[in-house]
Amino acid sequence: MGFQDILKKSFVQGYMDVNISGRSIALILTTAAIFGLYLFVVYRVVNRRAVYSKSFNVSLVAMAVITAAIIIAIQTSMVISLGMVGALSIVRFRTAIKDPMDLMFLFWSIGVGIMCGAGQFMLCGLLCIGLTVLILVLEGIPVIKAPMILVISMDKTVSEDTLSGILKAHSKFYKIKSRSLKNTVKEFVIELKTSQESSLMEELSRMEGLKNLSLLEHSGEVTY
User: d(Cα 142, Cα 197) in Å, to the nearest integer?
Assistant: First the structure.
């Protein structure tokens, strides 16, 4: 028997001889569920969007338990592990992840399942505590306030200098993003930063020839 045959035999036996007791399986799955519930609470606290998806949060708990079960199955048999690789390689997920934080929580849930399935409970606990502290610290850092968007329509006879004078007096910064002319109406889309929203709106509302006025606040990405 050559060296390669010995290596193959020991490799196969190392996988085939693994026998995990029912008590150990129950302990692993229960621990994965506990860490999954911890993820459930953290996601609910951190999530600050207007629309909260409870189904996504529940799926984080289920994904941790399912991943732990898959790791247990892979450890018990080499044949099952190869079958798992083939089965999972053909799975395609078409649900779009819109928030990067959701993607992070998905990887966190999968990592919890892998670590629990491998019996690395202490590592899993340290990861959860460390990530929670890191998220809370980074969430506490103030962000730059996004500029506001002013949409204004007025008669084309109104001078643009009149509008610019009002914006200079009531805003720290402004930039005209677009100009459009339809029949006798001019429309401007203006990006501006101001802490005097009320006075700015009152001043603009007194302009002659004003047709429409809207001041919008957005929570998108801010350009430095």
Answer: 21
Please state, in angstroms and rounded to a whole number, the distance separating the CA atoms of residues 35 and 14.
29
Give φ, ψ of 220 to 5 degrees.
Answer: -80, -165
pLDDT digits (tens, 9 = 90+) for 43-68: 988 886 667 788 888 999 999 999 89
Domain segments of the chain: what residues? 3-140, 148-217
Q: How many residues does the chain have?
A: 224
pLDDT tens digit sequence for 173-185: 888 888 888 888 8
Tell me which CATH code domain 148-217 carries.
3.30.70.260
* CB-CB neighbours of 19 under 10 Å: 8
pTM for the full predicted model: 0.63
Q: Tell me, rounded to whole angstroms, the distance of Cα 93 from its chain centroid.
A: 17
- The DSSP H or E segment spanning 186 is strand 185-193
